[in-house]
Amino acid sequence: MVKDYLIVGQGLAGSFLSWNLLRRNKSIAIIDQDHENCSSLAAAGMINPITGKRLVLSQRCEELLPYAKEVYHELERLFNKKFFESKEIVRLFGSKQELYEWSRKRQQTHLKKYYGKKQKPGTYADSLNDQKGSFIIQQGGYCRKLDLLNCFTDYFKENNLLVSGKLVYDDLKIKDDLVEWKSNYYRCVVFCEGYQSQDNPWFSWLPFNHAKGEILTLSNKDSGLPDAVISCGKWCIPIGDGKYTAGSTYSWDKFDCKITEKAKEEILTEIGIFIKASFEVVDHMAGVRPIMKDLNPALGRHPEFSSLAIFNGLASKGLLWGPFYSNQMADYLIGIQSLEEKVSIDRFIKKHFKR
Ligand SMILES: Cc1cc2nc3c(=O)[nH]c(=O)nc-3n(C[C@H](O)[C@H](O)[C@H](O)COP(=O)(O)OP(=O)(O)OC[C@H]3O[C@@H](n4cnc5c(N)ncnc54)[C@H](O)[C@@H]3O)c2cc1C
Fold first, then answer.
1. Radius of gyration for the chain, computed over Cα atoms and rounded to the nearest angstrom
2. Which residues contact 64 (CB under 8 A, 6 or more apart)?
3. What angle do CA 298, 141, 250 make, to 5 degrees?
4. Cα angle vertex 57, ends 120, 126, to 5°?
5. What is the rounded CA–CA span in Å between residue 274 and residue 267?
6. Is 52 a residue whose pLDDT tops 90?
7. ipTM of the prediction
8. Backbone angles phi, psi at 46, to 5 degrees
9. Is there a contact between 108 and 62 (Cβ–Cβ < 8 Å)?
């Protein structure tokens, strides 16, 4: 029997794409190595429309954010579980330049809904050291990504779609417009392997620039912190029951999912500058963000073998970008929509692909 798609990897990318293909009545199988080295497990869950020192609105936020929220609500109805929570994000000003950026952007009518009001130092919460004051980032929130991934995993297992194990590349036999894998046939194999695509023999030519990151789960029932994300370079997200997710670090020299004392100290030291309470560390995780050199996602079919495709490059925005781009990828795979130039892997062919 021939199935339409074999999806390799069931992190956020593979899960969203599989769900989108099923909704289009396509037959699929998924293989995942039990989430080994899975970046989606380490994701903090934050959906933040404004990032960086220049307080920039995330690209295409006005389109992608409402789209993502709608998808989470749809998945909440499907799985009968709450995933997305709107949360205020309190962004502490780190410099006069940031204050200037905030006032400049808040004057623009279309941005006002994201750049909320300003607070004077010491007025938002006693538990914060906010010497330069702060402002509220609106429209953002928190996604319970572990619950979401578990629901997807259970759903795929219940429907006999998910195989546990590592796909060995040599086991794939490419035959004209079909791919054979262990005596089964697929019209297309879609690699959703996150940073592990760097070892993929068909797609390792893509210009990746992955970044390792670490996060902590902290506990203090008497921290006095408000029910809001506190952000000032590093951030701290309340996740209930006196627990917080805090992070994160960025490093570009080692791509593994091992936790380090150095990253733990970095997070604790930096959040200690703007949060007065101290915490017990109850968990510590590491992952590698799958990032392309130009920071855009990477979608498309292999330039020579059209029965091989990739959906990758969700960077540090898997929860914001995943819903939108998996929908675009699904439409592209079934042939009803072409990919946007800036996300299609065709943009890299001339410079990076050698036949
Ligand atoms: C510390 C940290 C914090 C983050 N915080 C956020 C956040 O707050 N908000 C946000 O939106 N994003 C965040 N991200 C980014 C987010 O995690 C990624 O964008 C997203 O998880 C990428 O998903 P993916 O499915 O492409 O890759 P992964 O999640 O890595 O999934 C790939 C899957 O493929 C499997 N796999 C790979 N190769 C094979 C093979 N050969 N055979 C079988 N299975 C295979 C792996 O085991 C894994 O399960 C964070 C990332 C890190 C590291």
1. 21
2. 58, 320, 321, 323, 324
3. 50
4. 25
5. 12
6. no
7. 0.99
8. -85, 140
9. no
CA distance 175 to 26: 21
Residue of 38, 61, 156 to test ligand 1 pocket, by largest number of atoms within 8 Å of CB: 38
Instruction: Give the Cα separation of 326 and 298 in Å (integer).
Output: 11
Q: Return the structure tokens found at 89.
A: 């994000």
**Per-residue pLDDT tens for 95-104?**
999 999 999 9
Q: What confidence score (pLDDT) does residue 1 get?
A: 84
Domains of the chain with bracketed CATH: 2-42+146-207+293-352 (3.50.50.60), 86-140+210-289 (3.30.9.10)
φ and ψ of 245, to 5 deg: -100, 130
Residues with C-beta less than 6 Å from any ligand 1 atom: 8-14, 31-33, 35-40, 42-46, 166-167, 192-194, 196, 213-215, 247-248, 287, 289-290, 312, 314-320
**285: enclosing H helix or E strand:** strand 280-289
- Residues with Cβ within 8 Å of 129's Cβ and at least 6 positions away in sequence, in order, are 273, 274, 275, 276
| Angle, CA 77 vertex, CA 74 and CA 83 arms, to 5° | 75
User: Burial of 61 by CB count in 10 Å (0-12 exposed, 13-18 middle, 19+ buried)?
Assistant: buried
Q: What does the block give as tokens for 324?
A: 């939108």
Which candidate, 70, 54, 60, places its Cα nearest to that of 295? 60
Q: What is the pLDDT of residue 176?
A: 79
Contact assessment for residue 309 and residue 333, using Cβ atoms and an 8 Å cutoff = yes
Pocket perturbation via mutation, ligand 1, pick of 316, 325, 326 by most ligand atoms within 8 A of CB: 316
Instruction: Check if the beta carbon of residue 286 is closer than 8 Å to that of residue 212.
Output: yes
